[in-house]
Amino acid sequence: MINKNKPLVSVITPCYNGEKFLHRFLDSVLNQTYTNVEFIFINDGSFDKTEEIVFSYKERLKSKGIGLKYIFEENKGQAAALNKGLKVFNGNYITQPDSDDILDINYIAETVDFLEKNKDYGMVLCKLKILNDKNLKQIGVLKRKHNSSYIFDDLILERNIYFGGYTIRSSAFLEVNPERNIFENRGGQNYQMLLPVAFKYRCGYINKRLYSYVVRQDSHSHQLKDLDSKFERCDLHKEILVNVIDGIKTMNQADKGLYFALIEEKYVRRKLRIAFQFRDIKFFNKNYMILQQYREIRVQDYLLYLAIKNKFIYYLTYYLYEIIRTITKTMKRYFL
User: What is the sign, positive or negative, of the torsion defined by CA atoms of 316, 320, 326, 332?
Assistant: First the structure.
């Protein structure tokens, strides 16, 4: 039952074969202290017990005042599934948690409270806990540094930012996306949802651990083990970014050109790192030459260039690089 005295929140969640983790996510939706919610669940072509599990929660959700909209479609990826939900949502606010993550009981209440008190903000994010999927033990924390409430560039560069724990003001989303349709790409859906809003509106931050990101070793991103698949994922993400920025009507062409160049450099450098990781000298040289053409060679790039030529120096540099990368990742988890 909709409570007209409180804003309606649309929780939109795509899911593909979620039987192993869906119970804990649905429990976290059911246990929200804020219950003026429409829960839109898109089954992205699952062939396990996903549908059965969702329907088993229907009456319990209803008893809490949470309306369930269930949609089934052929497997086309999260962005395509999310589009189904965007066509039918009615909420004043949108949040799009992944079906393998967990919401704190006050997640919706806190994010709604922030946006109700800060009308000039288009969205808000919170601090995240990182959990191991095997035992749900906390292995890290992600929080944002308070350097700016305009996060457009940070999102593009994945700098001082993360995906998860966002709630978006529906009026802001519909202003920049009146067609209720995002670019469909199997590389994901976060850039499509967040960037157009972030270009025009400020993003708030709640320094509380209200959202748990569960690290699953069997997830698609964790199964990318060869150079070609990692390169392919780079290309998918690059395609999303270019498409989304190209579609921002209020951005002039000169600025779009600058962002396209920034994106190109980002993924050339990322491919350079991947080629180094696999000691693929051909692909390393290819991307190194591109950076040379852009006159964007950094000290780290040059050191990798010297290292990859010599097997002994390469393995020494590789292990040092991995140690530094692990330490940096750990520091980011706890101190960002």
Answer: negative
Interior angle at CA 119, CA 253 and CA 256, nearest 5 = 10
Q: What is the structure's pLDDT at 326?
A: 63
Instruction: State the alpha helices, DSSP H only, in the chain.
Output: 22-30, 50-56, 58-63, 78-86, 107-117, 152-157, 170-176, 190-200, 227-246, 253-277, 281-294, 299-308, 311-335
Distance in angstroms (rounded) separating the CA atoms of residues 75 and 223: 19
- Per-residue pLDDT at 310: 76
C-alpha 190: how far from chain center: 4
Question: Residue 207, Cα to own-chain centre: how many angstroms?
Answer: 19
211's CB contacts (< 8 A; 6+ apart) are 97, 101, 102, 103, 104, 107, 126, 127, 128, 129, 164, 165
DSSP string, 298-326: -HHHHHHHHHHTSHHHHHHHHHHHHHHHH
Write out residues in the chain with pLDDT < 50, as ranges.
1, 220-223, 332-336
**Measured between alpha carbons, how far is 156 from 161 in angstroms, rounded to an integer?**
9
Instruction: Output the CA torsion 219→45→20→68 (10° steps).
Output: 120
Q: What are phi and psi of 184, to 5 degrees?
A: -90, 125
Spatial separation of the C-alpha atoms in residues 265 and 157, rounded to whole Å: 10
pLDDT confidence of residue 219: 53
Using a cut of 0.85, tell me whether the model's pTM lies above it.
Answer: yes
What's residue 336's pLDDT?
45
R_g of the chain computed on alpha carbons: 21
Quote the pLDDT of residue 81: 96
In the chain the first and final C-alpha atoms are separated, in Å, by 39
Domains in the chain, CATH or no CATH each: 9-215 (3.90.550.10), 224-335 (no CATH)
42-80 burial code (b ≥16 CB/10 A, e <16): bbbbbeeebbebbeebeeebeeeebbbbebeeeebbbbb
Cβ 50 vs Cβ 23: under 8 Å: no
pLDDT in the model for residue 211 = 95
